[in-house]
Amino acid sequence: MSVLAVTDLKKRYGETEAVRGVSFTVAKGEIIGLLGPNGAGKTTTISMILGILEPSAGSITIDGHNVQTERTAALNATNFAAVYAQLPGNLTVEQNMNVFGRIYSVRNLRDRIEHVLKEMDLVRFRNTKAGVLSSGEQTRVALAKAFLNEPKLLLLDEPTASLDPSSAQLVREKIRTYAKNGGAVLWTSHNMHEVTEVCHRVLFVSHGAVLLEGDPRTLPGEYAKKDLEELFITVAREPLSLSE
Amino acid sequence: MPLSRISGILLRQYYLIRHNPTRLSQLFVWSLLEITLWGFISVYLADVAEAQFAVAFLGGIILWEFLVRAMYGVTITFFEDVWSRNFLNIFASPLSLFEYVLGMITSSIATTTISFAAVILFASVVFDFSILSYGAAAFPFLITLFLLGIALGILGVAIVLRFGPSAEWFIWPLPAIIAPFAGVFYPITVLPEWMQVVATALPSTYVFEGLRTVLAGGGVSFSYFIPGILLAFFYCTLAYLVLYRTYRRAVRTGLLARYSAETVS
Questions:
Q1: What is the pTM of this model?
Q2: Which string of DSSP letters, residue by residue, matches chain B?
Q3: Which of A105, B88, B116, B154 can bridge A85 by disulfide, Cβ–Cβ 3.0-4.6 Å?
Q4: Nearest CB to B8: which of A53, A54, A102?
């Protein structure tokens, strides 16, 4: 069974269709890359999955729960980290974990906090206010919060964008391990090398619709492109040349 | 486990206030300054008018401040999320809007209690004022005022959610807008007729009219308490419905998603 099932999802703002009938699934243990140029509809799709934007049509289920009608159950099985959603900087790292641990009704919260702080190499920052950490450290705090409730679905919007190569490698390892243990991941990134390394499958979104879908290692070859980056550039500049 | 989710909001406020002198002092400072100013005016009034009038005057100020603190308890909890750009983390979590509101109300109960205790202590030490001069009547009337403060707070949250953080300006003066109609310092019979009509629709009018009756030796009157508390419940429900509709609109139009990702002017 899919952990995330998105079916014929649409979002219209007046005459503008931001998302036009997007459908895809993410299974247990799968890492899916959601790719596309700026304004393609990726963040709109993620916002609808997170329940902060109402679809004009279509449905989203997480772990069998409809996001529209069973919001709490659906979002209890989910968590996320996004570059534009840092945790409150006026709380310490540990205080943030305590607050969000309660909001996500995490059992054995104290043990769980110790675990995620160790996993994200944040133990020495536990009493430091999140706002004074470097952007890379703040990203790790956001990821620690994202792992706090052991979500069945993890949404990651450019999770390694502000990390140094060593920290980014650490994060990729953690996410791969999380997927191996049965977690499902929806990942957006503009780093095509990273996507090729980590994702099992990619979805290219262009003008609000899924244009291409496949294995990031073989997909470029199917369209006579040397790698995912070249394919991305074609999607961004000449999407029609791919759909013909 | 909704209690766990609600406690998350309360815990956040506790962390923010605990070691922060700025946040801690805002619970007391403005209230104590108000009481100092109006306390000395009431001392003067006690010399030139009836002593009972001065007690009612200072009591009115203290109870109005209680209402204002109840409102601010709600709005400041919400503004902490606005100021720290924490919207996405909150609204994309399992926390429902209703639970979020309950979290804000719980925070308000805690901060209002602390603030009110400080004000009562200060007024008693400096101005020899005792809340007990109202007798047992004070407690049920306090509940009515608290509920009205909560209703104003929730309405303020809805206004900011609808118009963006710059609308913060509109919500701080909300208590001052209704104060002339609320009968805090004078019976509403002194108001022009149209203002009296507005006044009868406010729960606070029944509270202050009722308390003046108590001070005049008339005892607690249910004819003041019952309509006051019913109106307060009505406004709480109405304010929540306004907030709910505003929230649904923000989710439908994408305002909440934009609010979460960036600052809305």
A1: 0.92
A2: -HHHHHHHHHHHHHHHHHT-HHHHHTTTHHHHHHHHHHHHHHHHHHHHS-HHHHHHHHHHHHHHHHHHHHHHHHHHHHHHHHHTT-HHHHHTSS--HHHHHHHHHHHHHHHHHHHHHHHHHHHHHHH---GGGGGGGHHHHHHHHHHHHHHHHHHHHHHHHHH-GGGHHHHTTHHHHHGGGTTSSS-GGGS-HHHHHHHHT-HHHHHHHHHHHHHTT----HHHHHHHHHHHHHHHHHHHHHHHHHHHHHHHHTHHHHHHHS---
A3: B88
A4: A102
